[in-house]
Amino acid sequence: MSKPLRVAMIGCGFMGRAHSNAYCQVNHFFQREHKPVLKVAVARPEEKDKLEKFAAAWGYESIELDWRKAVTRSDVDLVDVCVPNNMHHDVVIAAAEAGKMIVCEKPLAMNLAEAKAMVAAVEKAGVPNMVSFNYRRVPAIALAKQLVDEGRIGRPFHYWATYNQDYTISADVPQGGMALWRLDVKVAGSGVTGDLLAHSIDTAEWINGPIARVTAVTETFVKERKHAETGKVEPVGIDDACLFLAVFANGSMGTFVSTRYARGRKNYNTFELNGELGAVHFNLENPHLLEFFRYADPKTGQKIEDHLTGWQTIHVTNFEHPYMKNWWVPGCTIGYEHTFINGLADFLASLEGGPKFQPDFRSAMRTQAVCDAVLESAKKRQWVEIPANP
Ligand SMILES: NC(=O)c1ccc[n+]([C@@H]2O[C@H](COP(=O)([O-])OP(=O)(O)OC[C@H]3O[C@@H](n4cnc5c(N)ncnc54)[C@H](O)[C@@H]3O)[C@@H](O)[C@H]2O)c1
């Protein structure tokens, strides 16, 4: 039986497009009872022209210039929050109070205090909720998780994560405005920690379990930038780069690095986990590949396979690999936009009796706690503990 799922899209930028595409595509590739209906798209009054073009391109039935009207509309079932970080809290609280399902972009909030209030609101309202840590839905990353869960890595020792970009090296890049709100601490909350390392932390905790404590250093290379909205040169309040060490609850050690000053790197999101029996390595610049190292002690090997240790490169496009049976034939790759479609398919499945969707707001609150601990550590120059239940 088909069930309409009427969507209010808040924001019409990068993520507004990525999520709209997912709503349009999900039923073409995944058998789900829920059929998204693009009911209303929202942006600010000064972006009316852009919003009208966006609504026409994706097929939204209407537009609103005030998000408060959209989230309380009786013809809306789900509110999708694709606006800058400083708006997530207010939109989510209003949507939860209106009893809507909520999809929220990452980072969940500006800080842990906001995240806690948001978790309380969705849990009080009892509404299904999802946070868009979309990299969990890269098939190669989901396969890495599967290999680790199957015990193929053995006892984990080291986790390494990198998330590097290079688009803010020029001191002429303004802070504020479309996309560059990420450089304005009042809108973003933090710099690379909340924007990029939040992804690395979510992936790390998913694959290797909770982070117990961290010690961090941050840097702001360009101290002042012109603000695109005020036109004035203002101090830069975000972290341009952040390095942190982590100890996981399972006793393994982590090294996390992120910067927007790595000349040559555009979206260099990598991780490696080394264990007693094997290792996995992933690089988003080659998203369809997973590197897997399988160790076998030659002295105890009985069968020829037991002697074949070494790195293997798995082309993650077979039907047995996560999500791939829903796409093309083996050997044909999928890309960035598919991570959002895969995530939405899992969310719809959770509404239809499937496994509870992860990450939900509560689990994204943990990522927020780690981000806050990283920033606190850098400020205080000391280790900071992360409670098991922040
Ligand atoms: N999952 C990911 O990999 C990923 C990637 C990029 C961005 N994000 C997150 O998605 C969110 C949006 O980022 P983006 O890249 O789409 O930004 P963007 O600058 O491309 O778009 C932001 C949108 O918000 C709208 N907006 C701003 N203020 C508004 C208001 N008061 N009312 C209504 N609309 C308003 C703007 O019109 C714009 O359409 C952020 O939280 C960001 O961290 C996540």
What does this structure look like?
The protein is of the alpha/beta class and 390 residues long. The protein folds into two domains: 3-135, Rossmann fold (3-Layer(aba) Sandwich); 136-335 and 343-385, Dihydrodipicolinate Reductase, domain 2. The protein is 33% helix and 25% strand. It has ten helices and 17 strands. The strands form three sheets. Strands 16-15-14-13-7-12-11-8-17 form a nine-stranded mixed beta sheet. Strands 3-2-1-4-5-6 form a six-stranded parallel beta sheet, with helices on both faces. Strand 4, helix 4 (85-97) and strand 5 form a beta-alpha-beta unit. Helix 5 (112-125) runs antiparallel to helix 10 (361-380) and helix 8 packs across helix 10 (361-380). The longest helix is centred in the last third of the chain and has 20 residues, at 361-380. The protein is globular and about 70 Å long. The mean pLDDT is 96. It binds nicotinamide-adenine-dinucleotide.
Structural class: alpha/beta
Q: Tell me what portion of residues adopts beta-strand conformation.
A: 25-35%
Report the principal-axis shape: globular
Radius of gyration: 21 Å
| Total DSSP E strands | 17
Please give the largest β-sheet. 9 strands, mixed
Number of helices: 10
Mean pLDDT equals: 96
Strand order of the largest sheet: 16-15-14-13-7-12-11-8-17
| CATH class label of the largest domain | Alpha Beta
Measured distance between first and last alpha carbons: 40 Å
- By CATH, the architecture of the largest domain is named 2-Layer Sandwich
